[in-house]
Structures are given as C-alpha cells and as structure tokens.
Predict the structure.
Amino acid sequence: MQKRLKLGMVQMKPTLGDVQANLDKHLAFIDQARDEGVDLLIFPELSLTGYMLQDLAFEVSARPSADSPLFAPLLEASQDMDLVVGFVDEDRRHRVYIAAAYLAAGEVVHVHHKVYLPTYTYFDEGRYFAWGDDIRAFDTRFGRVGMLICEDFWHASPPYLLWLDGADLFLHISASPSRGLGEGAQPDSARWVEQVNRAYASLFTSFVAHTNRVGFEDGINFWGGAVAYSPDGDTIVKGPYFEETLVTADIDLQDVHRTRMRLPLLRDERTALTASVLARIVGSAEVSR
Amino acid sequence: MSIAELTAGLTINTALARRMLVAFIREEVSKVGFERAVVGVSGGIDSSATCFLAAEALGAENVLALRLPYRTSSPESLEHAQLVTEQLGVKTDTVEITAMVEPLFERFPDMDNLRRGNIMARARMIVLYDQSAAFGGLVVGGGNKTEMLLGYSTLYGDSAAAMHPLGDLYKAQVRQLARELGVPEVIIDKAPTADLWPDQTDEDELGFTYESVDRLLYLIVDRRYTLEEAVEAGFEPEFVEQVSQLVRNSHYKRVLPLVAKLSTRSIGHDFLYLRDWGR
C-alpha cells in the first residue's frame, strides 16, 4: 500500500444530458491532474450526465465496462491514475441507478449505487431511479475505501457501515444545491455538509474527501467547495465555492495510524453490541423503523 | 419571541447573494447562446438592482436598459432610471408606449386603472421582447419574491422574462442587496410604485406595508408556519387571511398554462425536462 496520496477533487460543471461533452471535460481534467501528479482523481455525483435529469435519466445511462464508448476512454485513463466518476448505471433489467464507479489500472474496481434517493421539496430522484441496496468498502492501492453519494452521507448509517467494513478513506461525491441564504458566508446546505463530513473524519478517525459540482441547472446552484479532512478532523485543503476547478491535497496516509494510537475509537467500537441492540430495535413492535 | 426576532432570518449576506446572482445571470444567459441582456428600467429599486446585477454579470456594454414611459409616468421615475444607466454606463434607449396603448384606451373609454395598467405593462413587454430580438439579448426581469407570491404583477406583462434574478428575495432583502450593489440611495429610500397612474404607491394599493408582509410571508413560506401559528406569533388574523388568499388566488401566475392530458406522454405533465436540457 502506498504511504502517500496526491488526491485530486474536481468541482465540475457538467452539461445537462450531454454525455460526450462531459466525457471530453473529464478527459481534460484528467490531463490536468496528471500534469499535477495526482494519484486519485474524484469527480462529483452524476459528473458524466448532469444532475436534474428527469426523463433524461433513461437516455444517458451507461454500463461501466470496457465495451462502453463512455467508459473505454476513462478505463484507459485509469491505467496510471485512479478515478471516481459519477454516472447513471442501467442494469440488465433496465433499472437505472445514480452511481459512482472506482476505476483503476484499466479495471472497474467497484460500483456504488446511491442508497438514499432524496424525494422531497424539489428533489425527485425516487421518481426516476432505483434504490441501491448495498454498502461495501473495497481495496485500493491507497488502502480500503468507501464511496458514498450525497444523500447517502446525510444519513449516519452508511458512513458507519463503511467504517466497520474497513474503510479508512471516505470518498463522498455530491451534486449538492445551494439552499438557505442567511447571514453566513456560505449557503446553509454547504455549512451542513461541511459539519457532517468533518464529524465523520473525527468520529471514524479516517480521511474524508468530499467534492461537489458547481454551476446552475434551471436556476438551482451547486456550491462546489471540495474539501479533505484528516483523521483528526482538521481541514487538509478546501476549494473555492462556486468555481469550476481542480483542487488537490497531499495526504500522508500514515496519519490514520498516528491518530488511532492516540484515539483508539475503532479498537473500542462495540460492533457486536451495536448489532444486538439493532436486532432488538428492528424486532420490536413498539418502535417504528 | 417577537415577530422581529422570529423573522431575523430575513437578513442576508448580501455579498454572497450578489456573487450567486451575478453567476446565475452570466451562466443562464450564456448557456442558451447569448451574451447580452435587455432590462426595462423604471427608476424603482427592483429594476435598478436587476440592471446592476446584469451589468456586473455581462459587462455594461452587453446590457440594454430601456426606459418605457407612458405620458403620465412620473418625471422622477425617468430621472432615477437615468441615474442608474449613467452610473453603470449601460446602453440605453427610451421608447414611449403612449402611442401604443392610447388607441386601445380610446376604444374602451370606461376602462379602469387596473385594465389600463395591465395594458401598459404588456405594451412594455412587447417593446422589451422586440428589443431582445434586435439587440440579441435575453429579457431579464425584476420580479421579487414578495410580489410574485402576492401576484402583484401583470401576467405576460412585467412577469414576462427569461429569468427573474430577484425572484427568491423578499422586498426587504432586495433593499439590502441594492445597498451592496451601489444602487443610488434616493431609489432605495423612496416609496415603491408601479407608476401606472399618478401618485400610485404599492403599499397604498396593497393596503399593507412591505415590511409586515415580508415578515408574514417569510414565516408562512420559508419557515412553513401554519396560518394559525402566524396569528399566534402576533399577526392580525384578518391580515393573515388576506395575504394567504392573495397567495393562493394568484398561483395561476406562477405556473405554465394548463394542458389537458390526453396521450400517454403530455407536455406539462410527464414530458419532464429542465429548460437547461442539453446545456
């Protein structure tokens, strides 16, 4: 396993429904990242398609494999740089998922299907997309990784499960809209996301990297602000709000070791106790969900 | 808690609002293939703030600010509009709508102020959209959240635009933003008016103040207070009822015209794409 990681986080502005234009932009950012020595480059949620797809969801879907015209050039690019891309995955039964693919050495290492689909206020994901039904960490040359997509980490359980499944590096990707303009220097939604991601880094003594798209879709703004937190909960790097850019972070992966010597939260985590209490709660007629 | 405390959230970070709205105009204009905008400037705070935002987003040379007076329009309104266009250095023109609207007024001599005002607003829309084609710019409107929620606008008149950058800001918030933008104080401080007839003011016509209705709308719309809870918070029950009726009865102005669903896939029902489709 590598001891150091140069992480790249793209705050990208996709074109809604124009997969080819988005692929071209991915390849341009990959070239830029290669010049900067990036080892792992992560793109935001639905980076290859745009976010508010509505009926376009069924028109922009793809299969993550070498025979896909969309994925072939990305897999080729992953020969020397690991990649996380956001896309619409269509399964063999023609269900479509909001998905993230981890590509490395020309292979699809892992695909995560978004498990929480916000379907409230102006969010309408449940109308179009199928719900993912697995949460699983996976091994990379940078250690064991967990990937989550936006609403997934608005819930506490997916990051917790990934932690128990061995993830020391959390890659969170979003198309997070700006909402809530108050007196603060950033939208309320940005403040909220930053709070919880910093909390996950602290609670799980792990690295948490989050990237978010930018730009507008029909007046809805996405705030960018990619950020990486250390296992101590400190900010390693933070990108600008609203701007389309590549943000890089030099990460010393050994920091997990150092933090956990000081703060053995993982060693002391009582997983079996959690499981038994959960079993009691889920089995109880008195408690609804 | 007092109403003022409950509605303290009406105070916004104006620098952030400015940044987001400038980016909004720039992006939503450019992605549909334009780089210019046409703005009707009345001399009031909304159109002035809109013109400031458009000039910052696109460059003054890419903004055409049109003064569209009727013969009874107040000279002060025209002067205030000129203050804005001169300060910004935008392109400008003045097109009187009197000759456009008078024949219709004469045809229906018993026409009331409401009908005449609507015709004037729609005549202005005709000029703005014609100049949109001539200048090659999108029409950027000045609707704010307060008037859009109350329906205090003319359908297909001043409501007609490619976008309303101020549409998610209450009047009080537009005032805050206008200060940040550098809109002349004389415009910010004067009584808002549609200037459709002499000595008209919005607050006289509406029968309540922007300050009070902004606070009520903020609680009901943004904070999701029930009408009963708004009364408990200290608003007069009659006022709450009046405003809630205005909001409900004007909702037709905030949606597209209805289409009867007949087929399996119908415009307005299940043919669902954003305007920014492919952009």
About this structure: The two ends of chain A are 40 Å apart (CA to CA). The longest helix of chain A spans residues 19-35. The interface with chain B takes residues 15-18, 52, 54-56, 178, 181-187, 215-219, 221, 242 of chain A (CB under 8 Å).
